[in-house]
Design goal:
single chain, alpha+beta, BirA Bifunctional Protein, domain 2, 13 helices, 29% helix, elongated, binds 4-amino-1,4-dioxobutan-2-aminium adenosine-5'-monophosphate, binds magnesium ion
């Protein structure tokens, strides 16, 4: 079948102009309903949420083949586009030719009507053909496009930060090693330890957990930059919110204090939400009715009545709450909920605490600032109290921590003290320290976990469903 393929996304948008003309569509069969003299084929080509109804008449030369197709067939259809009388659809196609391009049989895994998310994770190579994962993929695309437009509009430049690194910038010891030494017989040094001097880079190297340190270097040259790329963490957290490989967006701005960083974070999240509402309406409306709302806390709204879309609409127009860590601890210790983990000043906020604050107490996104320095990274600006740092986390319902950021310590002496206090090695950080020596200035930034943003905006409750091919402990298939 020659001539140019029409994408459904475009047909649904401009279809009215093409009424009565001949169009060619290609896609995958969602269903076939047979009646005596004709059959209805529902076709989706992945370009949008909507499917096209096709009427195939028994006069078709290959009608027997066409009418016995099942879900999953890849086909091409040429026909006349007509206005549709059917409910919820504006156009339909009267087939003149139907070509079967690829068949499926009864073993096609997406046969079953109710395919659970767990089952679909095992079919990650096929799940993009379902309505749910098609929607998530298109929303993810829109969010990444929106990310570039947001920062571009703000005058920040996109920075490709390196993926291979010698530094554990977050100091959490959760790095994947990168090495070309023989795993069975690595060279040893005089102390009997693996000799990384003989390794590819002449020292021990890892996949990076963040692009922040490099972003700081470029922010102090360009005024403001952002990274958007894969980051890797070998933390052994088998939770619905952790991946071993995830994408992070890390803006970094010069001549900025914590309030500026928090403002940027709030504006960015609202921009993402607004962009999704304006550009992915069909997808969000479809996901609005997904079973995630059942049983989960997600979907709790200030008046308990709103749906997911309404909550997003509300978020877009709201002001995020801002509290200090100390205030958060006060709220948590007065809460009537019994927490698994302690809530004394100095304790780390756990997911249960974060979710209580954002889902139960404030019922809105909340920015928590000024955390104890003990459990935050070395690079954060220290407050005069000697105990806390200018850190900020942005917490959202259904997810918990969506963003982590801070103002950076721009002075040499306190930064050196922090490196020493944390028992870190100074040598790999010499270049970073030089940024404090020559033309240092207040600056800061944050990191947004892209898949957590996808979770938040789609309403999916497991991060494994917010990335095409998740990497988690003991799971690297596909
Ligand atoms: O809070 P984190 O560790 O901050 C940083 O990496 C800083 N360098 C960011 C900066 O200031 N430039 O991570 C930032 C965000 C978290 O808030 C979370 O959304 C996400 O990254 N994140 C993860 N997402 C999925 N799986 C994991 N294992 C994640 N760890 C962090
Ligand atoms: Mg964090």
């Amino acid at each position: 079948m020659s001539s140019k393929r029409h994408l459904l996304k475009k047909l649904f948008k401009d279809g009215k102009e093409l009424i009565d003309s001949e169009v060619l569509v290609k896609g995958w069969v969602r269903s076939v309903r047979k009646s005596k003299a004709f059959c209805f084929i529902v076709l989706n080509d992945g370009t949008c949420q909507g499917s096209l109804q096709i009427i195939a008449d028994q006069d078709l030369a290959n009608y027997d083949q066409v009418s016995s197709m099942i879900n999953g067939f890849a086909i091409a259809v040429k026909g006349k586009l007509v206005e549709s009388g059917g409910k919820g659809q504006s156009i339909e196609l009267q087939a003149k030719e139907v070509e079967v391009i690829g068949e499926t049989d009864g073993e096609y895994p997406l046969q079953k009507k109710a395919t659970s998310y767990e089952f679909l994770r095992e079919q990650a190579h096929l799940r993009s053909r379902t309505q749910t994962f098609g929607a998530i993929a298109r929303i993810s695309h829109a969010l990444s496009f929106a990310t570039h437009s947001f920062f571009h509009e703000r005058g920040l430049y996109f920075l490709r930060s390196p993926i291979i690194t010698a530094q554990d910038a977050e100091g959490a010891g959760e790095m994947f090693r990168v090495s070309t030494l023989s795993p069975n017989d690595p060279p040893k040094n005089q102390k009997g330890k693996v000799d990384h001097n003989q390794d590819y880079f002449g020292e021990e190297t890892f996949l990076s957990v963040t692009g922040q340190l490099e972003a700081e270097s470029y922010a102090l040259g360009l005024g403001g930059v952002y990274t958007f790329g894969p980051t890797f963490r070998s933390e052994n957290s088998n939770t619905p919110r952790h991946l071993a490989e995830f994408w992070m967006v890390e803006p970094e701005i010069a001549f900025a204090h914590l309030e500026d960083v928090a403002d940027l974070a709030e504006d960015y999240v609202k921009y993402l939400v607004g962009y999704a509402i304006d550009n992915c309406k069909d997808e969000l409306e479809f996901l609005n009715f997904r079973p995630r709302l059942k049983g989960g806390k997600f979907g709790d709204s200030p008046n308990g009545k709103e749906g997911h879309l309404e909550i997003l609409e509300h978020v877009r127009n709201s002001n995020f709450k801002r509290i200090t860590y100390t205030e958060a601890i006060e709220i948590l210790s007065k809460a009537d909920k019994k927490f698994e983990f302690p809530t004394n000043w100095g304790d780390e906020l756990q997911t249960e605490h974060e979710r209580y604050l954002t889902e139960v107490h404030f019922k809105s996104p909340v920015i928590v600032t000024d955390y104890p320095k003990t459990f935050k990274a070395f690079y954060m600006k220290q407050n005069d109290d000697g105990k806390t740092v200018r850190a900020m986390d942005l917490l959202v319902p259904g997810v918990g921590e969506l963003i982590g950021g801070s103002e950076r310590e721009e002075k040499m002496d306190p930064l050196l003290r922090a490196i020493e206090e944390k028992g870190m090695s100074r040598k790999p950080l010499e270049w970073y320290l030089e940024l404090r020596k020559w033309g240092s200035c207040p600056h800061g930034g944050f990191g947004l976990g892209f898949e957590r943003a996808v979770m938040y905006i789609t309403g999916m409750s497991n991060i494994r469903d917010a990335i095409p091919f998740p990497r988690t402990p003991n799971s690297v298939q596909f």
